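Module 6 notes. Inverse folding takes a fixed backbone as the condition and produces residue identities as the prediction. Think of it as a translation problem where the source language is geometry and the target language is the twenty amino acids. Below is one complete input and output pair. Work through it position by position during the lab.
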């Protein structure tokens, strides 16, 4: 089973996060090659950020080699 197929629950996720007076909007999209997260800051100084991870990126981050002592 492909790693990204396990991220199906995060596809089309929309979440509003309140941090003090700031409001952030988080959007998540999953396709067969990447998981992409968009974060937007609402307001006159609003900005958007985007991060994207491939199946290889996720596997390298999550799967760690076991070290025996």
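Target side of the pair, the amino acids:
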């Amino acid at each position: 089973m492909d790693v990204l197929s396990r991220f199906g629950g995060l596809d089309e996720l929309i979440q509003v996060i309140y941090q003090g007076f700031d409001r952030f909007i988080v959007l998540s999209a999953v396709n067969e090659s990447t998981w992409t997260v968009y974060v937007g800051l609402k307001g006159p100084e609003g900005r958007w950020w985007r991060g994207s991870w491939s199946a290889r990126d996720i596997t390298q981050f999550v799967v760690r080699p076991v070290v025996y002592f």
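Reference fact for the lab report: The mean pLDDT is 87.
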